[in-house]
Amino acid sequence: MVKSEEVIEELKKIVKQKGLKYTEQREIVLNVLLHADDHLTAEEIYNLIKTKRPDSNIGIATVYRALGFLEEVNLITSIAFGADGKKYESNTKDHHDHLICTNCGKIVEFMDDEIEKRQDRIAKKNKFRITSHSMQIYGICASCQ
Amino acid sequence: MVKSEEVIEELKKIVKQKGLKYTEQREIVLNVLLHADDHLTAEEIYNLIKTKRPDSNIGIATVYRALGFLEEVNLITSIAFGADGKKYESNTKDHHDHLICTNCGKIVEFMDDEIEKRQDRIAKKNKFRITSHSMQIYGICASCQ
DNA sequence: TTTACTGCAAACCCTTTGCAATTCG
DNA sequence: CGAATTGCAAAGGGTTTGCAGTAAA
């Protein structure tokens, strides 16, 4: 687990390196995800910002643009499932996959070394240069059964 | 691999059992997927029907409704990735996961027993009643490297 | 000063819905 | 006949874009 400040620093570095501008809005969006212990949609992030920072007059379009940018530079990742559209999380956590309750939407993270190894092997066998993977197990969680 | 006619028969059975009506449109949509060797979006299916069956005056809404129905009764499945929205395939093939080329969009199917077993175990450990899973490995295929 | 970035609103795409007409049972 | 299904067009939801104004370098 990486510290929030370090990630913010990294954002500053990336922005500078690309000759872009550092703005409060991008920082706020990243910060929300750094402190969320859940996967959030663009709209949820927007609403959170509206609530927690009523002074910052951010627009939903800016949230989308920031999310796109942050995902592009790999500071955050997204998964898409169901009808909720994309859900984002910060990319500072260790790699993991997702168990998703199709009833209440709850997401549990997990990680299995053997599965990871086998994925690499499968990609190699098919002559794919693997860049990432995404694995979701869908089911009904204990409290929804 | 199951024969197309058998699946069509199954559709007839399901429809009758549910007290619904058997329509040519649902059959056409299912048939397109049974003969596709690729994963298709709703719009691709719609366009295919328009081309191959110019006489059938089907509407895009009907395609969506048919796809929803067919997925509900488990004759087809869908995966969502990238910006293309849901892609459908018939459910008569044996279970498999997907290797996806992020450059050309090519999809390679694979299956690994050990991964399947481990998924079941992980779900059990987290007290999830597993209903399905979806696993995609993203990378660059041989011909795109 | 220059250029990227922003907020707003309109546009956009894909999907769903309301409805009158149609078809199946 | 009665109910499910259809095609059409309009509505919907989520996301993107054009633009004039704003703010970072």
How would you characterize the overall build of this protein?
- The structure is a homodimer.
- Helix content of chain A is about 45%, strand content about 20%.
- The first copy, chain A, is of the alpha+beta class and about 140 residues long.
- Chain A folds into 2 domains: about 5-90, Winged helix-like DNA-binding domain superfamily/Winged helix DNA-binding domain (Arc Repressor Mutant, subunit A, Orthogonal Bundle), CATH 1.10.10.10; about 95-140, 2-Layer Sandwich (Dna Ligase, domain 1), CATH 3.30.1490.
- The two termini of chain A are about 30 Å apart.
- The mean pLDDT of chain A is about 90.
- The interface of A and B includes residues 114, 133 and 145 of A.
- The structure holds a DNA duplex (25 and 25 nucleotides).
- Chains A, B: It comes from Arcobacter arenosus.
- Chains A, B: Belongs to the Fur family.
Give the class of chain A from helix and strand content and strand pairing. Answer: alpha+beta
Distance between the termini of chain A: 32 Å
Order of strands, main sheet of chain A, comes to 4-3-5
- Count of helix runs of chain A: 5
CATH class call of the largest domain in chain A: Mainly Alpha
Mean pLDDT of chain A: 88
Number of domains of chain A: 2
Q: Which pair of chains has the greatest number of interface residues, and how are they split between the two chains?
A: A-B, 32 and 32 residues
Shape of chain A: globular
Strand content of chain A: 15-25%
Please trace the helix and strand order of chain A, writing H or E for each element.
HHHHEEEEHE
Radius of gyration of chain A: 17 Å
Helix content of chain A: 40-55%
What is the number of beta strands of chain A? 5
The CATH architecture designation of the largest domain in chain A is Orthogonal Bundle
The CATH superfamily of the largest domain in chain A is identified as Winged helix-like DNA-binding domain superfamily/Winged helix DNA-binding domain
| CATH fold-level assignment of the largest domain in chain A | Arc Repressor Mutant, subunit A
Can you summarize the main beta sheet of chain A? 3 strands, mixed
Oligomer class: homodimer
Binding site for Zn(2+) (chains A, B): 101, 104, 141, 144
Binding site for Fe cation (chains A, B): 95, 97, 116, 133
Cofactor (chains A, B): Mn(2+); Fe(2+); Zn(2+)
Keywords (chains A, B): Cytoplasm, DNA-binding, Iron, Metal-binding, Repressor, Transcription, Transcription regulation, Zinc
